[in-house]
Write a structure and sequence with these properties.
Blueprint (H helix, E strand, L loop, with lengths): L1 H6 L2 H14 L12 E5 L2 H7 L6 H13 L4 E4 L11 H12 L15 H10 L3 E8 L14 E6 L12 E2 L1 E3 L3 H4 L4 E3 L12 E3 L1 E4 L2 E4 L1 H10 L3 E7 L2 E7 L2 E4 L5 E3 L10 E4 H6 L11 E5 L8 E2 L7 E2 H14 L9 H21 L3 H24 L7 H33 L5 H8 L9 E12 L2 H5 L4 H21 L3 E6 L2 E6 L8 H27 L5 E16 L4 E6 L1 H11 L1 H4 L3 E4 H7 L4 E9 L7 E7 L5 H18 L3 H14 L4 H15 L9 E2 L4
Parallel strand pairs: 1-15, 1-16, 2-3, 2-16, 3-7, 4-11, 5-9, 22-24, 25-27
Antiparallel strand pairs: 3-6, 8-14, 9-10, 11-12, 12-13, 17-18, 19-21, 19-22, 20-21, 22-23, 24-26, 25-26
């Protein structure tokens, strides 16, 4: 592993970068900085002012407009390396040289004869930074160079020269001398990693005998009104630089990790056409660092980043400014190689102790603890702005553990062979096979009679709209913890959580005597627990929860189900669907728990039951009797109202709807708030107005 770390093969570099990408959201700010703004030469601008490149007088107008809007600086992510061929003076020369025709232009103001001169005049009066591009291969170019900013190096006597490891450009695409004499330049280069994604940019580049800043760094310097940089070096070389009060950690090669905040359009885009027309709001530009670039198809300088494979290159500079202004940095410290080697050594020792000497019960906890500690340490460092990859620690744990477990497995198989040979002397080969191999599977699939429970929080979607995602998670955790404990304490099997719903069953994988009564007891206990829990929930979250529960007892197929990669011990069958439908009836009938007749019969005399209805649920032809279970002694209303309720139900079942409606109305008036009485009153009145042709006392549900 140490050799692999030193060699840094490309495959592991790619894995390292993916880990960095996975950690990057930890550096995401709640709100990106408002300082960078992108002046976009978009399709709207091209449609309004013509194809690119624009005449330099138009670019000069854009610079003038931005300056008048009060921007702190303007970074031009555009190359102005050649004269403007649309200038009248230039056109006269070209036509005469190519066609031998002398072109006379009358009535043109002298100031508009040369668009480059006009642009240079705008640069002189504006806080502009011109874009340049460094070439690292090819023959060195000649000609004049722009004036570099002052570099103030600060370091100890043992510190190497700050520029020793900086990238050296053999040539560059520079603006015309008449432009860079008026405004400083900044290099627009980025540095894609081995997978082609941009995660860092060079803030300093050596060119000729001087060192130049990047476009983003020079734009920050221009906004601060400084023309010097402070460079801090140590025994390993350059480690940070500062412009004004803004200090930026860099690698010794002068690279800055850019902690991108999202995909394209994370930062504000303003169409260049709006700026030229004067319709851009000056409050959106005042004090900002404006980067002029393009996102138009065919013109865009596309860059791939961890968040977006087609990000306009101009937004990379905006992301760098965002990091500098907010102090949101990530960098690999100079001591990272030593820390990585120490991590490999510690992981080797820990894996050897855990997998080489401990028992099988320790394997999984040890692996989780060892790898979890490695990842957690890397995560915590990343949150402080330091990237120390957990990759080599994880690989060490995996390889060490895998090799040691392979050796131990081979040893165990050898011991089994010895065992089989020893027992074969005393018993038959079949008995030996029974001893060596565990027979049967407790979780194999089978048809069983089960009691199936579904619960659901009423109106949880609307309730959760007033809560943040974190509060929703905390609320559900607080709700599910006692509910699952109730299921387990009554010998139930928790199947799954479905959003705010819970599914459980009884009588599998082991036999559970009296499972129907246990399921009903669990549902009633959940309702009782919710009453106590609601006081805490209302205090913490300002809401109260209401829950419905449905239970059905019947045959279902239960066992391991899923794919080759992922399985779950669960159940399927028509009776599972019926249990789910019963839960959905709780709100309709105003009952906290609704059970089927099969469940009621399985409970014996344990609970009191109120017969709610005989109905056909949607998708079923066989009618189902449903009941409201109660603990004995808790149903005071129904103890008092039972004679009148029974009489009203009798009228309803024999089709005397008007008489039934009157009796149900009397019940609803006497016991206000009981949804069941109100439901039957409304239903009886509706049936009295439109009696069914053949009434059999069975109500058909038209929805779920």
């Amino acid at each position: 592993m140490l050799a692999l770390y030193v060699a840094q093969p490309v495959a592991l570099q790619r894995l390292d970068l993916k880990i960095y990408d996975a950690l990057l959201p930890l550096r995401k700010l709640s709100q990106p900085s408002a300082v960078p703004v992108i002046i976009d030469i978009d399709e709207q601008s091209l449609a309004r002012y013509g194809q690119w490149p624009w005449p330099r007088y138009l670019v000069a107008d854009l610079v003038d407009r931005l300056t008048q809007s009060g921007v702190a600086s303007i970074g031009l992510d555009i190359m102005f390396a050649e004269p403007d061929r649309t200038s009248p003076a230039r056109m006269q020369q070209d036509i005469y040289r190519n066609r031998g025709i002398s072109l006379e232009i009358a009535g043109l103001p002298a100031a508009l004869a040369d668009f480059d001169a006009l642009f240079a005049a705008s640069l002189r009066a504006a806080p502009v930074v011109l874009g340049a591009f460094a070439r690292y291969t090819g023959e060195p170019g000649g000609g004049p160079q722009p004036r570099p900013p002052a570099m103030i190096a600060r370091g100890g006597k043992d510190a190497p020269p700050y520029d020793q490891f900086l990238p050296l450009a053999s040539g560059a695409v520079l603006p015309l001398p008449q432009f860079f004499e008026q405004a400083p330049v900044g290099f627009v280069n980025v540095s894609p990693d081995v997978d082609g994604l941009v995660r860092q940019i060079p803030l300093l580049i050596r060119f000729g005998d001087a060192v130049y800043p990047s476009l983003a760094l020079q734009s920050l310097m221009r906004a601060l009104g400084t023309d010097s940089l402070r460079l801090y070096t140590g025994p390993d070389g350059l480690f940070s630089l500062a412009a004004g009060n803004f200090k930026v950690p860099v690698s010794r090669e002068g690279y800055m990790q850019v902690p991108f905040q999202g995909a394209r359009h994370t930062y504000r885009y303003i169409s260049a056409a709006r700026v030229l027309e004067g319709t851009a709001d000056k409050t959106d530009l005042g004090g900002c660092i404006a980067f002029v670039g393009t996102s138009a198809p065919g013109l865009a300088d596309i860059r791939a980043t961890p968040f977006d494979r087609v990000m306009p290159g101009v937004e990379v500079h905006a992301a760098a400014i965002d990091a500098m202004v907010n102090g949101n940095f990530v960098h690999t410290p100079a001591w990272a190689p030593g820390a990585q080697m120490l991590m490999i050594a510690i992981a080797t020792c820990a894996a050897t102790l855990a997998f080489g000497f401990a028992g099988p019960r320790v394997y999984v906890p040890a692996a989780v603890a060892l790898m979890g500690a490695t990842v957690l340490a890397s995560r915590q460092l990343f949150m402080t702005g330091l990237f120390l990859s957990p990759l080599y620690g994880l690989l060490t744990s995996l390889l060490c553990g895998g090799l040691l477990l392979s050796v131990r497995f081979w040893h165990e198989e050898k011991q089994k062979l010895v065992l089989r040979r020893a027992f074969s002397r005393y018993v038959s080969p079949e008995v030996v096979r029974q001893i060596s191999k565990r027979q049967g599977d407790l979780l194999a699939g089978e048809n069983r009679e089960l009691s199936i429970l579904f619960t659901d929080i009423r109106g949880f979607t609307s309730l959760s709209e007033s809560l943040s995602p974190q509060d929703v998670v905390q609320l559900l955790n607080r709700y599910f913890t006692p509910m699952t404990a109730i299921v387990r304490n009554r010998c139930g099997t928790l199947d799954k959580f479905i959003g705010d719903a819970l599914m459980a069953f009884w009588n599998a994988p082991l036999d559970v005597p009296g499972h129907a009564a246990l399921a009903v007891d669990a549902a009633l206990s959940m309702q009782e627990q919710l009453e106590a829990l609601n006081a805490e929930i209302e205090e913490s979250f300002g809401i109260r929860l209401a829950m419905g529960a449905g239970i059905h007892t019947g045959q279902a197929y239960v066992g391991n189900m899923g794919s080759d990669d992922l399985i779950n011990y669960t159940l399927i069958g028509d009776n599972v669907n019926l249990a789910s439908r019963l839960e959905g009836l709780c709100k309709r009938y105003g009952a906290p728990v609704v059970v089927s007749e099969d469940t009621m019969q399985g409970c014996g005399e344990t609970f009191a039951f109120v017969h709610l209805d005989l109905l056909r649920v949607k998708g079923k032809t066989r009618p189902v009797s449903i009941y409201w279970p109660m603990r004995p002694g808790t149903d005071e209303i129904f103890q008092q109202a039972m004679p009148q309720w029974t009489a009203a139900r009798t009228c309803y079942e024999r089709g005397a709807f008007a008489e039934a409606a009157a009796q149900f109305a009397a019940l609803a008036a006497r016991y206000s708030g009981v949804r069941l009485f109100e439901l039957y009153c409304e239903r009886s009145r509706m049936l009295a107005q439109s009696p069914p042709p053949a009434w059999d006392g069975i109500w058909t549900m038209e929805d779920k």
